[in-house]
Specification:
The chain has 15 helices and 26 strands. By secondary structure, it is α/β, with parallel strands linked by helices. Among the domains are: 36-155, Rossmann fold; 406-513, ANL, C-terminal domain (GMP Synthetase, Chain A, domain 3, 2-Layer Sandwich), CATH 3.30.300. It has a 9-stranded mixed sheet with strand order 2-1-10-9-11-12-13-14-15. Strands 4-3-5-6 form a 4-stranded parallel sheet, with helices on both faces. The protein has a 4-stranded antiparallel sheet with strand order 16-17-19-20. It starts with 10 loop residues before the first helix and ends with a strand.
Length: 514
């Protein structure tokens, strides 16, 4: 039985204990402010509204809404009620939503009122007991019900092993998996990052990330909450608007696309960044070229870190100390990390292998998929990340690709990242992606998909340059030129889409295609 005088382990209490009542928590792009006192009041009303609609502790609440202060308060209200928050990408169609509603079996589904005609019947067909609406302006049936509720609400007791959120992994093939993150998982990661990145109540975080992903929902906002600081809240990323707001910010967390688009602004430079103490990048690899260009233009070295839905942030370059280009830094506080071979045997420092981790932020498992959970963990309790990398003698981690992206050509292992780095260093190349495609003789042929800034750059020149830098089995057998690489919402290159596009037998000599 839980002691009534014991500290609350509900993530809501952990995150909101430091914010001063009169301090600003969120300031919108339009100038609207939400204080910490107003946050507690609104989450109390929302929690009461959820309870009135039958949501009990442990129930799932599926949410597909646009980003807004009210939407973030809804997330916190679900925690406060003791429910399990299930964020869904607003871009999902009604057809795509069916899987998530059937799999998560939520007690309530919250969506934009403009979509009620399609989503309310779907929710009914999936057996969802309650539907509520919330739009980008904070209006809808949830707001109407909450307005009639009291703002006092006793936070539901939750233990550190109770599930706080289920986030579906962004796999592009097969059945998506719901990673179960507990109150303890998220609290431990928030504390480690707030300390590591030096957040205090004096910070103002420029938040331009989406809220259906761990980066915006947890990593960025949790640092602000746990330090009692403020967020400048943008509904979506706009390079021009970010550049205008940066002089009022002390920190910004972004994906590589944020930094490339800022660099595309002719007037962007150190003046816009005069008050910023920290830029971080995650969710996708930051090109070394982008890192160098941003440091030259803005006067800041972007702090790159590495994480995944199943464990939030795993490694980070330091706030103070060497931010090593091409490396995602060292394991953060509480995280143990090792490299293993394909059979799971630990490898020595410097060897390439699969990264395995353990620690207090590693997920509880995959929702309703015990067989996938068992596959994800080793017999001695380490989580298999699926990422290939190396760990240097000083602990800095370098990623070289995913196990699913590994190309085995003629019996040799080819790590795409190594070839991509060589490609990206060539004059005239903007960026590249390396994949394997079926080949009659080699099994897989190393294939490069290249975005070029110089139209005169052809496959022959690329292959010729790479032959001087790489072993012959690593040199692409095919080079394709595209205007841009396909990416998901967080900026990760969709290599599965590229493999599908170029999955033709590749037994011919190198041929440029357009």
């Amino acid at each position: 039985m839980r002691r009534t005088d014991a500290p609350s382990e509900n993530l809501f209490d952990v995150l909101t204990e430091r914010g001063r009542a009169d301090a600003t928590f969120i300031e919108t792009d339009g100038g609207r402010r939400l204080t910490y006192a107003e946050l507690r009041s609104l989450t109390g009303r929302y929690a009461n509204a959820l309870a009135a609609h039958g949501v009990e502790p442990g129930d799932r609440v599926a949410v597909q809404v646009e980003k807004s202060p009210e939407a973030y308060c809804l997330y916190l209200a679900v925690l406060r009620r003791g429910g399990i928050y299930v964020p869904l990408n607003p871009a999902y169609t009604v057809a795509e939503l069916r899987y998530f509603l059937e799999d998560a079996a939520p007690a309530a589904f919250v969506f934009d009122p403009a979509d009620a005609a399609g989503k309310a019947p779907l929710a009914a067909a999936c057996g969802v007991p309650a539907c509520l609406t919330l739009d980008a302006a904070g209006k809808g049936t949830l707001a109407e019900r909450a307005a009639a509720e009291d703002d006092a609400f006793p936070t539901a007791p939750r233990g550190r092993d109770d599930v706080a959120a289920i986030l579906y992994t962004s796999g592009t093939t097969g059945r998506q998996k719901g990673a179960m993150l507990t109150h303890g998982n998220l609290a431990s990661n928030a504390r480690a990052l707030t300390n590591l990145w030096g957040f205090t109540e004096r910070d103002r975080l420029l938040h331009a990330l989406p809220m259906f992903h761990a980066h915006g929902l947890f990593i960025a906002a949790h640092c602000a909450l746990l330090s009692g600081s403020a967020m400048l809240f943008l509904a979506r990323f706009s390079a021009e608007r970010v550049a205008e707001l940066l002089p009022r910010a002390t920190a910004m967390m972004g994906v590589p696309t944020f930094y490339t688009r800022l660099l595309d602004l002719p007037g962007f430079g150190p003046e816009a960044c005069r008050s910023v103490r920290l830029f971080t990048s995650g969710s996708a690899p930051l090109l070394a070229e982008t890192s160098r260009a941003f440091a030259e233009r803005a006067g800041h070295a972007v702090l790159e870190r590495y994480g995944m839905t199943e464990a939030v942030v795993i490694t980070s370059n330091p706030l103070d100390g060497e931010r090593r280009p091409g490396s995602v830094g060292r394991a953060i506080e509480g995280v143990e990390l090792r490299v293993a071979d394909a059979e799971g045997r630990p490898l020595s420092r410097g060897a390439v292998g699969v990264l395995q981790i353990r620690g207090p932020a590693v997920m509880k498992g995959y929702w309703r998929q015990p067989e996938k959970t068992a596959e994800a963990f080793t017999a001695d309790g380490w989580f298999r990340t699926g990422d290939l990398g190396t760990v240097a003698e000083d602990g800095y981690v370098t990623l070289v690709g995913r196990t699913s992206d590994l190309v085995i050509s003629g019996g040799f292992n080819v790590y795409p990242k190594e070839v991509e780095l060589a490609l990206d260093a060539l004059p005239g190349v903007v960026e590249s992606a390396v994949i394997g495609v079926p080949h009659r003789d080699l099994g897989e042929a190393v294939t490069a998909v290249v975005v070029r800034r110089d139209p005169a750059l052809d496959a022959g020149r690329i292959v010729g340059a790479l032959k001087a830098r790489l072993a012959s089995y690593k040199v692409p057998k095919h080079v394709h030129f595209v205007d841009h690489l396909p990416r998901n919402a967080m900026g990760k290159v969709l290599k599965s889409a590229l493999r599908e596009t170029y999955a033709v037998e590749a037994s011919r000599p190198v041929v440029p295609t357009h």
